[in-house]
Design brief:
This protein is α+β, with helices and mostly antiparallel strands and 98 residues long. It has a domain at 31-98. Helices cover 23% and strands 24% of the residues. It is built from two helices and four strands, in the order ααββββ. The protein has a four-stranded antiparallel beta sheet with strand order 1-2-3-4, with no helix packed on it. A hairpin with a 2-residue loop joins strand 3 (74-79) and strand 4 (82-88). The longest helix has 15 residues, at 2-16. It is elongated, with a radius of gyration of 25 Å.
Length: 98
């Protein structure tokens, strides 16, 4: 009998807890737009030859020096003079964190 009462007490306590909530992460597929971006390891000179001059430049900052080139549809991050990341830009502003 005490096991039954204990089980009922646990079940009622679990029922009183708020329901779990999860946010849905939506990942937009870049394949749909077919955005051509610089590849990792490309030099600054090569990126400028292929994609033209950036709209703006940030850096270099820190050690090793990190520089960011901003283009209309993507951002390129360099370490020294080599691409380490190319990231697509989105037209809409990011959602605020809750």
């Amino acid at each position: 009998m005490s096991k039954t009462l204990f089980a009922l007490a646990i079940i009622s306590l679990l029922g009183a807890l708020p329901a779990a909530r999860a946010d849905v992460l939506i990942i937009e597929k870049l394949e749909a737009e077919k955005i051509e971006m610089p590849v990792r390891g490309a030099t600054m000179q090569r990126v400028q030859q292929v994609f033209g001059a950036p709209q703006s430049v940030s850096g270099p900052v820190g050690e090793p020096p990190i520089t960011r080139w901003n283009y209309d549809k993507f951002v390129v991050v360099f370490e020294h003079n080599r691409v380490i990341h190319s990231v697509a830009r989105h037209d809409r502003p990011p959602r605020p964190a809750n």
